[in-house]
Design goal:
about 280 residues; alpha/beta; Rossmann fold; 2 domains; 6-stranded mixed β-sheet
């Protein structure tokens, strides 16, 4: 958890407290409450973000119920609900449409809900901040779900020369590549068995690594020397994949970087610096 900030106390929940929720299955690993709740306190905003564990078959019903709460201002969405969340938004940004998924929803003044996806932007900021520029690189993204789709789109927007996405769901993979082709023709492909030895950057955007008994999403021994290995898993921080990659001398990027670099994006998206609306 984020350390306490001297002189800043946690907000007291009252009848005027504004609500935000983060939805996932599971939610034990989410770090958003430990980032946004201290931010609310620092800004003097009477608001709280709370986790909601909701299974996929109940997701639409839970969202419909939550969004009817008049004191709910926003939702964050994590695995495995990001694609479903896009279908429930009233409007979405071009980035979210290209990814086919959203990870944040904001209530607009007219009551409509706008969806955005910051996973890709946050990931690319973390990648470049660590000195690994995607421009001109050959990149493989494992996973065509919500996070993988957003990361794929953001990497192409950042200048990746060639991007390969892998996923066992052939229909999901085909749809993602078709969306990417509309914006970045000729630079994205979908493959079941990519040539890992040609990659400059490998990204695990699957859930593999959250549990101790998970298999690794790809064999590290097949990678070229000095290929960057990035993981989106937040907890544990040191996944088996990252441990194996580091042991083989590969530069690594932890999943926390993707979320840490989204905090300012959330602050702007949820208008936290604006005067409260009456």
């Amino acid at each position: 958890m984020e350390p306490a900030v001297p002189g800043v106390s946690a907000p007291q929940i009252s009848g005027s407290t504004r609500l935000y929720a983060v939805l996932g299955a599971p939610v034990e690993q989410v770090r958003a409450p430990s980032l946004l709740n201290p931010l609310f306190a620092r800004l003097g905003i009477d608001a709280v973000l709370f986790p909601v564990h909701v299974d996929p078959d109940a997701f639409a019903g839970v969202v419909h119920g939550l969004t009817r709460m008049k004191n709910l201002d926003g939702l964050l969405v994590t695995i495995p609900h990001k694609a479903a969340a896009l279908r429930l938004a009233d409007e979405v940004s071009p980035a979210a449409a290209a990814a086919g998924a959203v990870n944040a929803l904001r209530r607009e003044p007219d009551g409509r809900w706008r969806g955005e996806n910051f996973d890709g932007t946050g990931f690319v900021r973390g990648l470049t901040g660590a000195g690994h520029l995607p421009e001109g690189k050959r990149i493989v993204v494992m996973g065509a779900g919500g996070a993988g789709s957003a990361i794929a789109a953001a990497l192409l927007a950042a200048g990746a020369a060639q991007l390969t996405v892998c996923d066992p769901d052939a229909a999901k993979l085909r749809d993602l590549v078709a969306r990417l082709e509309e914006h970045w023709p000729g630079r994205a492909t979908g493959e079941a068995d990519p040539a890992l030895g040609n990659a400059d950057i490998m990204v695990n955007a699957t859930p593999l690594g959250m549990r101790a008994d998970d298999p690794q999403p790809f064999p590290v021994r097949a990678l070229a020397p000095r290929c960057v290995v990035a993981d989106v898993i937040m907890k544990p921080s040191e996944t088996a994949l990252l441990k194996a990659a580091a042991a083989h001398g590969h530069p690594i990027l932890h999943g926390a970087h993707m979320l840490d670099h989204q905090l300012d994006l959330y602050r702007t998206f949820f208008r936290l610096d604006e005067p409260p609306r009456r």
